[in-house]
Write a structure and sequence with these properties.
Structural class: mainly alpha
Strand content: under 5%
Number of strands: 0
Oligomer: single chain
Helix content: 55-70%
Largest sheet: none
Length: 86
Amino acid sequence: MKEKFKGWGWGVLAFLTCPCHLLLLIPLLAGTALGSYLAAYKTPAFIILGVLFALSLYRILSKMFADKAESQSMDCCQPARKEMKS
């Protein structure tokens, strides 16, 4: 059951930190300290949220495709090693 929700927290973080959602967050947070910071410093907020968004999106995609990568093994194609005599 736990594997079913793998990366769910990263998905929520990606949704909340998406730079396009910042335009919706500023009016929602109006009157709060975070809202006033976002309104005053839009450019640094866009940069910070953009980096967080990219990181969380990378983590989601790496967790989604990790199962497929683990199931594919290349062990059968490795050449047999020769034992060296000492």
